[in-house]
Amino acid sequence: MSSFLPYGRQSLDAEDLQAVMDVLKSDFLTQGPAIGRFEKAVTDWCGAKHGIAMSNGTATLHLAAKAMGLKHGDWLWTSPITFVASANAGRYCGANVDFVDVDPGTVNLCPERLEAKLQQAEKDGKLPKIVVPVHFAGQPCAMDRIHALGQKYGFKILEDGAHALGGSYEDERIGNCRWSDAVSHSFHPVKIVTSGEGGMITTNDDELAWKIGMLRTHGITRDADRMVGESEGPWYYQQLELGYNFRMTDIQAALGASQMTKLDAFAARRREIAALYDQALGGLPLRPLARDPKGISGWHLYMIRLNLAEISQTRRQVFESLRAQGIGVNVHYIPVHLQPDYVRLGFHAGMFPEAEQYYQEAITLPMFPAMKDEDILRVRDALAVATGV
Ligand SMILES: *Cc1c(COP(=O)(O)O)cnc(C)c1O
Question: How far is CA 28 from CA 20, 23, 35, 36, 211, in A?
């Protein structure tokens, strides 16, 4: 029996290790020059004006929402098929959270359902302040249409790009904010490039970038032009509002900057693996997610949906058989509104039927750049055993 194949893992090389060693031997473990280098590497790749590195992706969603003015009484809307962090960002700001059901094909936030919900919310006087489209599995959302609705209904757009770095929509790279106010990135080791833990906001909005940067460091500024009254001298700083310590270390940033030099190669390999899966999985009782032809996926995940009507096994049995065969499958995601902490807020099963249906059928297959071509065949064979075909 061959070894366990995880669903995702980082690829680090000698250059990455050296970049971290160099920081460890330098004067700055944090608040040093590696942060700016990493921010520039990401903004150069995406084509965005500003990058603000932070301790993790969750912190970037939180502070971007806060800097956009989200507060008690406001609404943030997102997709139910996402990691809890996309929704929690609203709650950290004291705002209300609601969801828009997904497109049954791509499983991304559905623009038609968004429009219908906006029409109702306008009547009820409860329009959202922020909508968070999540590029699920790496497949970009219908950003042109979501942007047009943002113009019409006056909400801000914060893209959750945690799965999507390396991808694009209508030739606009994810992260360049062509259709949004800001994009959140995550550098957790299962994501496209890693800094251990880490996240970044990219934005083209000068004021938003300044505000997020200020909130990242306790709400403190050293910029005399921003102070209340006069600066008292070169040592002086002011806390302008209640911020946080959400800084990234230089150790993490050096790793992230080194990883960014490999982003194109990682993205190309992920696309290759996806194409190999597409070929290999034909004839099995399952289907991949639909793809929007305007988008190039970052391929964080390769999701399948089981055709449960064609097999006698349950999703759980298929999943357990794959695990027993050494295939590190996963399920992305349990719909956020069904989490007990959201049920407590009044959400319940039946509210977002496309998301709930998807969840019943979904399995995440292994996907990471260091996978070998043979690994894809091994997954295919294991799926054949698990589904009894
Ligand atoms: C990973 C992820 C985040 C942020 O995660 P961190 O672990 O805090 O970096 C946010 N949204 C989605 C969809 C994610 O997958």
Answer: 12, 7, 10, 13, 24
- Which residue has 């550098």 as its token pair? 187
Q: What tens digit of pLDDT does each residue of 9-43 get?
A: 999 999 999 999 999 999 999 999 999 999 999 99
What's the length of the chain? Answer: 389
pLDDT at 42: 98
| Cα(16) to centroid(ligand 1), Å | 22
pLDDT at 3: 87
Q: Is 259 in the pocket of ligand 1 (CB under 6 A)?
A: no
Pocket test for ligand 1, best of 10, 62, 107, 160 (most atoms within 8 A of CB): 160
Each residue's pLDDT tens digit, 323-346: 999 999 999 999 999 999 999 999
DSSP 71-124: -TT-EEEE-SSS-HHHHHHHHHTT-EEEE-PBPTTT-SBPHHHHHHHHHHHHHH
Q: Which domains does the chain have, with CATH numbers?
A: 14-260 (3.40.640.10), 263-387 (3.90.1150.10)
Query: What is the dihedral sign for C-alpha 29, 46, 60, 107?
Result: negative
The angle, 0 to 180 degrees and rounded to 10, between the axes of the packed helices 33-46 and 250-260 is 30
Show the tokens assigned to 135: 């590029």
191 is catalytic: yes
In 238-366, beta strands by DSSP E: 238-239, 286-288, 295-296, 302-306, 362-365
For the Cβ of 85 lying below 6 angstroms from any atom of ligand 1, the answer is: yes
